[in-house]
Amino acid sequence: MTYKRHVDRLPIIPTSAKEHNVTCHYCIVGCGYKAYTWPINQQGGVAATANKLGVDLGQQQPAETAAWYAPSMYNIVRQDGQDVHLVIKPDPDCVVNSGLGSIRGARMAENHTSLQRGTQLSRLTTPMVWRYGSMQPTDWDDALDLVARVTAAVIDEQGEDGLFVSMFDHGGSAGGYENTWGTGKLYFGAMKVKNVRIHNRPAYNSEVHATRDMGVGELNNCYEDAELADTIVAVGTNPLETQTNYFLNHWVPNLRGTSLDKKRRELPGEPVEPGRIVVVDPRRTLTVAACETEAGKDRVLHLAIEPGTDLVLFNALLTYIADKGWIDRDFIAASTVPAAQGAALMSRPGGGGPGAPDPLTDFAAAVAANRTTIEEAARITGLKPEDIVKAAQWIAEPKAGGRRRRTMIGYEKGIIWGNDNYRTNGAIVNLALATGNVGRPGGGVVRLGGHQEGYSRPSDAHVGRPAAYVDKLLIEGRGGVHHVWACDHYKTTLNAMKFKQVYKRRTDMVKDAMNTVPWGDRQAMVDAIMTAIRQGGLFSVDVDIVPTQIGQASHVWLPAAIAGEMNLTSMNGERRMRLTERYMDPPGSALPDCLIAARLAKAMERVLRERGKTAYADQFEGFDWTTEEDAFLDGYHKHEKGGEHVTYARLRAMGTNGFQEPATGVQDGRIVGTRRLYTDGRFSTKDGKARFMITPWRGLQAAGKAEQKARFAFLINNGRTNMVWQNAFMDQYSEFVMDRMPYPFIEMNPDDMKELGVAAGDLVEIHNDVGSTQAIAQPTPSAKRRQTFMLFAYPTGVQGNVINGGVNELVIPNYKQTWADIRKLAAAPEAARRLSFKSPEYRT
Amino acid sequence: MKGCDLMVEVGRRRFLGGLGVAAAGAAASAATAPQAGAAPAPALVEYPSHHLANLSQLKTDEPLAVAYPDKDAPGVLIKLGTRVPGGAGPDGDVVGYSTVCPHKGFPLAYLKEDRTLNCPGHYGRYDCEKGGQQIWGHATQNLAQYALRVDAKGDIWAEGVDELLYGRLNNVL
What we know:
Mean pLDDT of chain A: 97
Strand order of the largest sheet of chain A: 6-5-17-16-15-7-8
Radius of gyration of chain B: 17 Å
Number of helices of chain B: 2
Largest interface: A-B, 66 and 72 residues
Oligomer: heterodimer
Low-confidence stretches of chain A: none
Structural class of chain B: alpha+beta
Protein name (chain A): Arsenate reductase (Azurin) large subunit
Structural class of chain A: alpha/beta
Distance between the termini of chain B: 22 Å
InterPro entries (chain A): AioA/IdrA_3Fe-4S, AioA/IdrA_lsu, Asp_de-COase-like_dom_sf, MoPterin_dinucl-bd_dom, Mopterin_OxRdtase, Prok_molybdopt-oxidoreductase
Mean pLDDT of chain B: 84
Distance between the termini of chain A: 27 Å
Helix content of chain A: 25-40%
Low-confidence stretches of chain B: 1-34
Number of strands of chain B: 10
Pfam families (chain A): Molybdopterin, Molydop_binding, Rieske_3
Radius of gyration of chain A: 27 Å
EC number (chain A): 1.20.9.1
GO molecular function (chain A): arsenate reductase (azurin) activity
Order of helices and strands of chain B: HHEEEEEEEEEE
Strand order of the largest sheet of chain B: 5-6-7-8
Strand content of chain A: 15-25%
Shape of chain B: globular
Shape of chain A: globular
């Protein structure tokens, strides 16, 4: 039987309950929620006057009511040492989600640790160390002393390049401005660590270098632009499942035509009609199906492109639109570099070199260099020529009266983790600049985002460009100590099978050495560890909220807190910054990452002084924080643009709507923000002029991809699904999720399954030249033959095992273009037999 | 008897979580009870036993609109024609579900073609042959299914629900 909670009533929120602002800590959208807490021995009543919801709960509530919460929105947690009831429910007054909850965010309460109700008991509660052959508890001082001593000793012998760091750079979860600043000040301030990477890629680099190089910050519009656009272009993104309430609350109204009043209001005197959408994706996603439901098939254009060829499509669109004259000449003249400068840019030294892979230039030069005919594009992309022309018309053909068409372009991991990231990103932004769709209502050329953002760190310029390919260096035996902050390479890297083999071997060498020494003899312990490191071993420190897969190899685990257990600030995909207030205690002695970083810095300072390294020790000063707010004031408030206007008190007063960054001032106690970037036509370059990019097609760019495609039968496209957040770091402990998703699925065409003798739910092995992994077969009639789609980064079947090590010039991985063979492993395991394999696609 | 069945079911699934909530509610009731000596509240919600239909009224794949535990809680009875987990009746093929989507409370529609209940609000789908498992959607729970009993005369009785119904904080108002 499918999982049921058998909860048939819930405690009622009393009028006296405390109310806290919450921004969902999962995806980029950052839906507004409210957390309510109240003492364990109290409850509200059914009468409207006796509960916080202010309605008669003796009545059935209607659809979309704010006066209901699901069992997943309820828990019993600790607050200031006391047990309290907790309800976290969507906030109807938040402009982001208007009361909608997603299948991820609406489980925040249940996804907290509750000793009383048995949820998330796997959270780390105390520092753990490798002692007597297994992970054993210790206290913070003891754990950090060992980490500092080993780290200092490695730096002594190898310099700071011997310290490898993997650290999240995102908002939400356990990220946010407080925690990126804490870790950033340690590794980029006190130290200048170069061998550093981010949570989802093997280097410390931007996912969207190209748009930034062109002067266009990647989050430049606001969510309302999706309601105002004449046409939305979605490239390599599946927003219904990965930016759910942005799609439901802002895209759908446009497609349904219910945002027409807003269009008339905001765009007076201009012809408006319900929105159209172009979806560029090799797969018929649930987004495509939902768009057809809402807008009708005639207003949805799904370009089921040959995987990895998006660049060709965008070059052809630019060519066609330029030739038709459907461009914004005034915008190009006022806001992009003139032709004379374009030539100079192209011939500048280093243009096209490793740090600047492709030349930036002016409009005319870019159109000339990127010229691609519709026929040529159709041949490479596999699309129908008439569909490419239709896309061009929907994007740029002037409206009645010659009015410019408003087109918003959103792209995400299909592009970011796809073929030739830099050029493809550039080709997309070329189109937006040519049509004047940046900085204007109904426009924007934006990444749609994964996590929320929350980046505040000292300069990373010392890392260089291209940045070090950290995972490769670790495989090659480099480095002596590895600090891991909420990253799980075992699940979320490329070439993962090889990485795991080497990482386990290197860390096992240190474990074996540690087993030879009593724990209490610190000097002997450090000596033993250093001997193993000199022989190729690696000392691994894992800071995380739960035991991770890479953590199985680590020697120290340090328990971190998440949003809600600490005050935490982040911004969403329209730069909307909010404060999630602390509404409960972290489990055990877990701490916010920023305070862990501060304590580690202090331990480093002490150890370095002991070792007589006074000048170096001095660099570790400035971490006298006792709260996360101290880190916020030291970081964001002091260093970020407009940060001086932003304080916890002001954010608290601004609730779940916050303000849109950057802050420009304060009026009547409220922070004044910025709805859209670049409304003045000045871009993020020294001269304020945006650049076009030369983006010629060169086939499958990353090493080994073309060979893999030729050799193996199936495309193993991959990505997320609605139910699971990120790599399931918390969902793997959710009965609701694991009942539905015991193994990753792989969507396969039923005829392919028949050929392989595979039935729905059977375990299959996906194997190629770099590794192998497993999934259960999900028959998918809409899947093209030989094109599969597998859930990414899942703990019970890591898709990264079969992704080769190929990256682009700036060390951006290509996860998406992966090919492998598939064979049956076993008939459906018991956990898969109770699953539904019916199509997830909504039909009427 | 009904209480025992429910207790067994609770015990089978998530004893700790279920009891935690029930006990918390009970403890709080006691604390706020105005007078000592009041009858103690039972730990489980008391579901009514309602006659929904007779087997003779059901045709395979023709959903019958019902309501349970009261008229404000719409639901459906379906004879699937194949034995399914949780199915009632001599053929083990009769199921009953709430038709209020547990995401935002929109009414679900039955799609005969693949025996699913579908939500026009935000595209959620529930499998009637798999205990109301959410095939895809935004709800954080699977679809509430009725505990059905079919007597010797073929009368179908609903006697419980296995998830919290949308729009009420107590399944029995």
